[in-house]
Amino acid sequence: MSAGVAWRTGFKTDEDREFQATFLSLGTESAKDKEAFLHRLSFMPKPTQEMFKKGERIFSDFDTAYENIKNRPLYDEGQYVVFKPIELLEEGEVPDSVVFTLNTMELSAILQLNGSFRTESAHIMTPQASACQAIGAFTFEQNDSDDPVPVLSPLDFAARAHMRRLIPDEYMNLSMPWKLFLKLEELSKNSVFQTHFWDDFGNK
Q1: What contacts 157, CB < 8 A, 6 or more positions away?
Q2: How do the domains of the chain map onto residue ranges?
Q3: Burial status of residue 135 (CB atoms within 10 A of its CB: 0-12, 13-18, 19 or more)
């Protein structure tokens, strides 16, 4: 979780990073040192061993996984992160980001709103990362951009399996820096939300 909210990497050694890259790619099949990988797995419960042997297969090979992990955004500051409903913000409190949990119609509307002021078609990020990294590190990174984009998540099935009791399968998260949220909030006053399309689809 600390890596998810961008506090350092979560890896004490390069071997730890290699171990994670092996798991996120093809497991034992992609391990650089299969003997060392299997030895490390031997200390885990049997079901966990089998999961790691197979690999999560988020990445097609070890090298791609390793480079992706190495290039993830990091911020060495802060001791904790507070999540709260936006209506509970106190006067003068300015959040770093906003996280929406949306069904397909709501997501379509927000994405259309997000594209309404842009001239390019590519204006959303879908990081190959864990759910916490998507709403944390990658969203914080967008706050540093002059042209921030929303971050769609979670794409990893491991996270979705843990979340499905709280967030149904047909819902997604869309996170964004506070400054982008304020821009979209202003744009929403004259947008798809004032059309019969939203009346027909969005309010069902």
Answers
A1: none
A2: 14-70, 92-202
A3: buried
Torsion of the alpha carbons at 8, 149, 94 and 96, rounded to the nearest 10 = -10
Q: State the DSSP H helix or E strand holding residue 153, giving kind and residue range, or none if neither.
A: strand 151-153
- Gap between the Cα atoms of 120 and 175, Å rounded: 20
Contacts of residue 90, Cβ cutoff 8 Å, sequence gap at least 6:
none
Contact 156, 130 (CB under 8 A): yes
Q: Which residues lie closer than 8 Å to 127 by C-beta, 6 or more apart?
A: 133, 134, 138, 151, 153, 155
Instruction: Please state the separation of Cα 178 from the chain's center in Å.
Output: 16
Which pLDDT belongs to residue 78? 65
Model confidence, pTM = 0.87
Averaged pLDDT for residues 136-146: 93
Each residue's pLDDT tens digit, 181-199: 999 999 999 999 999 989 8
Q: Which residues contact 68 (CB under 8 A, 6 or more apart)?
A: 24, 59, 128, 129
The secondary structure element, H or E, covering residue 151 is strand 151-153
